[in-house]
Amino acid sequence: MLQSLLSPDFFNAILRATTPILFAALASSVASKSGITNMALEGIMLFSALFGVIFSAMTGNFAAGLLLTMAAGGAIGLLLAFFVLNLKTDEILAAIAINLMATGGTVLLMLAVSGDRGSSTSIANVSAPKVVIPLIDQIPFVGQILSGQNLMTYLSILAVVVMHLFLYKTPLGLKIRAVGENKNAAESVGISSRKIQYIALMISGVLASMGGFFLSGGYMNMFTKDMSAGKGYIALAASAMGGDTPIGGFLVSLLFGAAQALANMMQLTDIPHELIQMVPYLTTLVGLGVYSYAGLKKRQKLAGK
Amino acid sequence: MTCLEKNIVLQMNHIMKIYSNGVVANEDVSIELEKGEIHALLGENGAGKSTLMKVLFGIESPDEGQILLNGQETSIRSPQDAISKGIGMVHQHFMLVPSLTVAENIILGVEPRKKGVFIDMEKAVSAAEEIAQKYNFDIDVRTKVEEIPVGIKQKVEILKALYRGADILILDEPTAVLTPQETDELFVQLEKLRDNGHTIIFISHKLDEIKKICNRATIMRSGRSMGTYEVKDISTEDMSRLMVGRDVVLTFEKEEAKPAGVILKVRDLSVRNAQGVLKVDNLSFDLQGGEILGIAGVEGNGQSELINSLTGLNKSYQGRIFVKETDIEKSSIKEIRDLSVAHIPEDRMTSGCAGNLNILENLFSNQYTDPEYSGKMLLKVKRIQARSVELIKEYLIKCRSFRQNVGMLSGGNIQKVIVAREFSTGPGLIIANQPTRGVDVGAAEFIRKRLLAFRDAGCAVLLVSADLNEVFSLSDRLAVMYKGKFSGVFTNVADVTEEELGQYMLGLKHQEEQEGVIYE
Q1: Confidence class for position A1, pLDDT limits 50, 70, 90
Q2: Disulfide-capable partner of B65 in B12, B15, B77, B349 (CB 3.0 to 4.6 Å)?
Q3: Which of B54, B108, B160 to mutate to test the interface with A (most CBs of A within 10 A)?
Q4: From the candidates A34, A163, A172, A174, which should be mutated to test the interface with B, based on the most B CB atoms within 10 A?
Q5: Environment class of residue B167 by beta-carbon count within 10 Å: exposed (0-12), middle (13-18) or buried (19+)?
Q6: For residue B433, what pLDDT band results from cuts at 50, 70 and 90?
Q7: Residues of chain B with pLDDT > 70: what percent?
Q8: Is B54 an 8 Å CB contact of chain A?
Q9: Chain B: nearest CA to A194, how far in angstroms?
Q10: Chain B interface, mutation test: which of A189, A195, A298, most B Cβ atoms within 10 Å?
């Protein structure tokens, strides 16, 4: 067991498990920074997992499939924004509606497209390729981790950097943070908070859809019913625990990814698999508990000052 | 300043603003600003200063009147529009983003860029530093706003306006949140701004500050302008008279008070607000049954804190409060109410009623546990409905039925619902905070008469009001609150003139010895 924990395979498993959570955590952080909780991540990921398979198969090209999926994800983000900002729906209720629609809608769509209810095995899927980095792949141990990952995994790490620069170094990022923190202040200098929140939710939808794309075009090679399996919610927790910053979200996503990888590995042991499957969710619960407790202590300390 | 010829930068002529609830906030108000002056806009809360400034800053549009900017007629459609026309406003509640730095707050919305994509932070910092230096503001622009004290936050707000090219600066009660030292510092900077050719509108009701820094003052009262004066030519006494005079003298047929034993006893009460500022300062007084004690004063002198402590809304105070011999320090709000205390709160929408509930539900929100109206498990709906109908009739509440949501009623009718609820329990002590504010004349008259009727029936009434008419005509004893203390207490209300009262309200006068505060 210990030996397998130290093998490159295990670290690869961590990165693979981290990728979808990381995309969704970034999606959550940009929405949260603009002042809206995007709980529809789960539904957007599930929709995108199916769209990814369909669009890739239709175009016969993973890149075209990815771009179309991202567009669809952005559109769902805009739909959420329309409900919340124009129709003044409660953001949680609107998200639940989208998530429920995804659960039923994906099965219906799959049935229509492939004639199958459980998975999309009958569709010839084109997945994102693995990337072998020359030279680096020659390094023992480290090379096996740094090289040979799925393209989406590299994109997710690139997205951390891009989102960090976007939120903290660009005018639009500054506006998003200003709107999320003090809407009146932003409005008072002529920033349209509605426009900014629309943009933030669209970006959020695009990022979440990339996570969904990876589920069916990298992590697995097909779409299966309910395959997002709560990763959108775990990502919400990861983003919150990371202070809604891209880098914080990345670190917490790694932790949750490790928990997922550990659970996968423990399935080879004698421990009942029902218990093992609890590990990622239990980690989230414990993580949130620790995070909230630390926040409480911090507030108490500030109040006592 | 001796101007050979006046250089008028802004004129607001005959501004009229009536809000949709019928309140006339501005009635034929005119004001004229000269370039490079500090112009005081003086008046009590509710006198219409804020509305006039909202019109100028594009937040409200006037119903009548014109605005001339540098001699050109103009219309200001939004704050953004006002900013682009060189008008800046420093709001009383700061419009800053705490987690951003000073520089980021200053450039927010007008960010300098580099490579087309990124914020040019160096340029932002140097621009912010440059403007801070130009006006002698000693600020580290790289600090986060959440880490700087209130006085500096205000400077950031001023810099924000200057960075956007403001020639006319509106400061809404800028000294309300400042310490005396910070105030002095602010004044030095305002003078510097004035000498640089900026025009400043200084909203305040602190006469000493106006004397100190302003060139001219426009005084407002009940939505109207009482004229513009050279500050050096007008005495503080005259200013206070213009500011707090009565418009119409109300008279009520009032019987001699028949005091019937102390009901409310307050001893050495001190209250600090959330920021740690002492708002009620070692206050002691008694209130008997059968009398009305009026508390006058400019808002923010501790009245709200006093009332919140008396009614159990605020529990962190020093000193003791007794209602009918019971120390209420450990009592819940319900326990205090069970001592037959009724409370008409200051803000009817936030703490007076539940706008989304209907009239019946609001009327019974303080007595739904009364066995008269509640069985063991279920409410006695028939009885409650019958009583609601009675109360609606008795208190002349204009509505379609008791099923109508309270939030849909007019201000006066909402207040009547609250008054009906509070009075229907047969109170022994009524604590009424601004009971007739924003209420139409008829409803106000009705509420005042009710208060008098309760007093005649032996009820003790504590009346806090900014309306001088009201405190004059209702009170048996009258106290003026200034900076958390009673600056004056008058046992014979008829002997006090409104000028005198105004001087006590504004801290120009102070009684050394007070009689008739405590009955012992």
Answers
A1: low
A2: B15
A3: B108
A4: A174
A5: buried
A6: very high
A7: 96
A8: no
A9: 15
A10: A189
- Cβ pair A175:B109 closer than 8 A: yes
Query: Tell me, what DSSP letter sits at residue A217?
Result: I
Hey, what domains does chain B have and what are their CATH numbers?
Answer: 8-244 (3.40.50.300), 250-340+427-520 (3.40.50.300), 352-425 (no CATH)
Condensed to tens digits (0 to 9), the pLDDT of residues A265-280 reads 888 788 888 888 888 8
Question: In angstroms, rounded to a whole number, what is the distance separating the alpha carbons of residues A12 and B463?
Answer: 74
**For residue B60, what are its two tokens?**
């409200």
In chain A, residues with a C-beta closer than 8 Å to the C-beta of B92 are: none
Provide the β-strand partners of residue B294: B463, B478
**Residue B227: strand, helix, or coil:** strand
Comparing C-alpha atoms, which of B505, B517, B322, B348 is closest to residue B429? B322
Q: Between the CA of residue B179 and those of A185, B42, B212, B277, B302, what are the distances in Å? A: 24, 21, 16, 10, 17
Confidence label for B117 from pLDDT (cuts 50, 70 and 90): confident
Q: B118, A170: Cβ pair inside 8 Å?
A: yes
Mean pLDDT of chain A: 90
E strands present in chain A? 130-131, 149-150
Q: What is the pLDDT of residue B292?
A: 94
What part of A 156-175 touches B (C-beta under 8 Å)? Answer: 165, 169-171, 174-175
Q: Which two tokens stand for residue B104?
A: 């980021």
End-to-end CA distance of chain A: 49
The model's pLDDT over B349-372, given as tens digits with 9 standing for 90+, comes to: 888 899 889 999 999 998 888 888
> Average pLDDT, stretch B203-226?
88
Better pLDDT: A67 or B92: A67
Task: State which residue of chain A sits closest to B160, comparing Cα positions.
Answer: A189
Residues in chain A: 305
- Sign of the Cα torsion A129, A135, A138, A140 reads negative
Contact A77, A206 (CB under 8 A): yes
Q: Which CATH architecture has domain A2-292?
A: Orthogonal Bundle (1.10)
pLDDT given for residue A47 in this prediction: 97
Where do the domains of chain A lie?
2-292
The answer to whether B119 faces chain A, any CB pair under 8 Å, is: yes
pLDDT of A102 reads: 96
**Predicted TM-score (pTM) of this structure:** 0.75
